[in-house]
Specification:
There is one protein chain. By secondary structure, this protein is mainly α. It is built from five helices and no strands. The chain is elongated and about 70 Å long.
């Protein structure tokens, strides 16, 4: 991302367009940061499939909270903050799912159809 794009995204005028969900502003941010978020997800150790899902979750949350965005941080910082929180959430949910799988395996190993 060029320095001028960075400055444009930080401008109060651009942030206002984002907050009001101006189509062109939103499209510009999505086109600029989707690949960065995807690569960041891979860097956090997620598979390509998981990274794709994670990036979709980031954008979903971003659009949910966008009307309240106060521009206390740059959009990129804000997006990566969402990414890190979603990554923690994703891992926590995945860990819970793996715990249940282990219990299911124990039950199958110890009991047959007759109990």
């Amino acid at each position: 991302m060029s320095e001028s794009t960075y400055k444009i995204f930080a401008s109060p005028e651009f942030v206002q367009k984002l907050v009001t969900q101006d189509h062109l502003a939103v499209e510009k941010v999505v086109r600029t940061y989707t690949e960065h978020l995807f690569k960041g997800s891979l860097g956090l150790g997620f598979s390509e499939e998981e990274a794709t899902e994670l990036v979709q979750n980031v954008w979903g949350t971003f659009f949910d909270v966008l009307p309240n965005f106060k521009s206390n941080s740059h959009i990129r910082t804000f997006l990566f903050g969402i990414l890190y929180n979603k990554a923690k959430e994703f891992r926590r949910e995945k860990g819970k799912a793996n715990q249940h799988e282990a219990i299911d395996q124990v039950m199958e190993d110890r009991f047959d159809e007759n109990g």
